[in-house]
Specification:
Blueprint (H helix, E strand, L loop, with lengths): L1 H9 L1 H14 L1 H14 L1 H14 L1 H15 L7 H11 L1 H16 L19 E4 L8 E4 L1 H14 L1
Antiparallel strand pairs: 1-2
Length: 157
């Protein structure tokens, strides 16, 4: 076993180059395998990612700080105006969001720790309103699931 470890240490660069070349030549096959593995071992993968984020919090934070410094938020120049326009066009949605935000501040409603759809933790959850007349009737979803939920609604209309 020690011999193999020494071998990998001595030939690290060559092995990494070979791996990279193999991946480039077989990208579809590798991605398909990874997708199947993730589906079969969902709980294991979620635990791994949660542990990774816990151990590398500062590293991840610094990465995103640098990324945003370099690339910016990529918001439109009229972002603020677009928000006001959306509020004017959808007063019932804006009112429901505001009521929910106030209820959370007062402690009447507590954000859960994980996404109701995929179970993801360690991220700020979005409130997806099921009925805008009842502002407390929400599903708590991660950003990815929330976007998928809205795309699903658009495709059925």
């Amino acid at each position: 076993m020690a011999y193999m470890k020494q071998y990998y240490q001595r030939n690290r660069e060559q092995l990494l180059a070979h791996q990279k070349q193999y991946y480039q030549e077989n990208q579809e096959k590798c991605l398909s395998y990874q997708k199947q593995y993730n589906e079969k071992n969902r709980d294991k993968v979620l635990v791994y990612h949660e542990e990774y984020r816990g151990k590398n919090k500062e590293r991840i934070r610094n990465y995103y700080r640098e990324w945003y410094k370099k690339n910016g938020r990529r918001r439109a120049e009229n972002y603020r105006e677009a928000i006001y326009e959306w509020r004017d066009e959808h007063p019932e949605r804006a009112k429901a969001s505001e009521k929910l935000r106030e209820a959370i501040k007062r402690g009447e409603i507590k954000r859960p720790e994980k996404c109701e759809n995929c179970g993801r933790t360690g991220t700020r959850l979005h409130a997806h309103h099921i009925d805008y007349n009842d502002f407390k009737n929400v599903r708590w979803l991660c950003a990815s699931c929330h976007k998928l939920e809205h795309n699903k609604v658009r495709h059925t209309e």
